[in-house]
């Protein structure tokens, strides 16, 4: 059987945010039913990266042993608190007849300074899916995009059950997002996937009741670099206005995206606050 390969663009096309939110909700239900085997992830902290790591290096076979020894951490070498290699295995048995089971493992690296230093994503890796009956590998997918989608989708599932909007304050829903990177963008999509869902869909769970003719959803972004918050607000405004103009999907709501100078401004009167940043001040 041929192993399927899904790159970044494939994952985007095949896993829309709305469907990802629904899948995460189903996943939590299966987890509660003890259908998952999911050990704690294994995380390897990596040694500091040499300054010449971005340069192409050519070494001879005779010096390979020396080169390897130079990058293996010794007992006196301090490990990096940020750069890591992680492995996240899992096994699930689906409640279908006949029963089907699958195994997966996400192997990913996290290098927070990648974007500023090398123009690369901070999270890179693959998700491998196996047949749980015979161990056959079924697919290998881009982990960065799956991670970005899944993280935001889980937040949206939590919001769906925790956010209660009364008749009095349903006209305006304010969302504060602290950060302006990948997770800020994906959380915008995930939150809107829930807030803009059709009222007759089962995944609304009847906990969020919105009068769409009056609904106004405001996203307030804050970032340490204010310019990045402004850029994200403009990007989301363009994206959703284009969707509205071409498809009419959001005719029942007014969407507002703005950047705020301070955290206090961003979170003022917010019903939902997303911390998608590593900033501590």
Can you give a write-up of this model?
This protein is α/β, with parallel strands linked by helices. The chain has 8 helices and 11 strands. Strands 1, 2, 3, 4, 5, 6 and 7 form a 7-stranded mixed sheet that branches. It has a 4-stranded parallel sheet with strand order 10-9-8-11. A hairpin with a 5-residue loop joins strand 4 and strand 5. The longest helix has 22 residues. The protein is globular and about 55 Å long.
Nearest-integer average pLDDT? 83
Cα-atom radius of gyration? 22 Å
Give me the strand/helix succession. Answer: EHHEEHEEHEEHEHEHEHE
Strand content: 25-35%
- Parts with pLDDT < 50 across at least 5 consecutive residues: 53-57, 67-80, 198-207, 209-213
Globular, elongated, flat, extended or rod-shaped: what is the shape?
globular
Helix content: 25-40%
Gap between N and C termini: 52 Å
- Tell me the quaternary state: single chain
Largest sheet: 7 strands, mixed
Structural category: alpha/beta
Tell how many strands the DSSP assignment holds: 11
Number of helical regions: 8
């Amino acid at each position: 059987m041929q192993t399927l390969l899904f790159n970044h663009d494939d994952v985007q096309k095949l896993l829309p945010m709305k469907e990802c939110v629904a899948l995460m909700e189903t996943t939590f239900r299966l987890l509660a039913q003890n259908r998952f085997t999911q050990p704690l992830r294994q995380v390897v902290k990596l040694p500091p990266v040499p300054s010449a790591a971005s340069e192409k290096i050519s070494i001879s076979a005779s010096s390979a042993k020396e080169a390897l020894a130079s990058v293996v951490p010794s007992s006196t070498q301090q490990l990096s608190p940020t750069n890591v290699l992680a492995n996240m295995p899992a096994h699930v048995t689906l409640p279908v007849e006949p029963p089907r089971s699958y195994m997966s493992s996400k192997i990913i690296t996290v290098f927070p300074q990648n974007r500023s230093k090398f123009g690369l994503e901070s999270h890179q890796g693959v998700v491998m899916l196996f047949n749980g009956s015979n161990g056959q590998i079924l697919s290998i997918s881009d982990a960065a995009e799956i991670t970005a989608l899944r993280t935001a989708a889980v937040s949206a599932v939590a919001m769906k059950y925790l956010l209660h909007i009364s008749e009095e304050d349903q006209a305006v829903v304010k969302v504060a997002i602290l950060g302006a990177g990948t997770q800020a963008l994906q959380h915008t999509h995930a939150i809107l996937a829930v807030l803009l869902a059709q009222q007759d869909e089962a995944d609304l769970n009847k906990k969020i009741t919105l009068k769409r003719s009056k609904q106004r959803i405001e996203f307030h972004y804050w970032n340490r670099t204010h310019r990045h918050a402004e850029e994200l607000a403009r990007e989301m405004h363009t994206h959703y206005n284009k969707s509205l103009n071409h498809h009419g999907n959001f005719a029942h709501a007014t969407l507002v995206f703005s950047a705020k100078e301070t955290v206090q401004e961003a979170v003022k009167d917010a019903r939902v606050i997303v911390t998608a940043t590593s900033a501590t001040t």
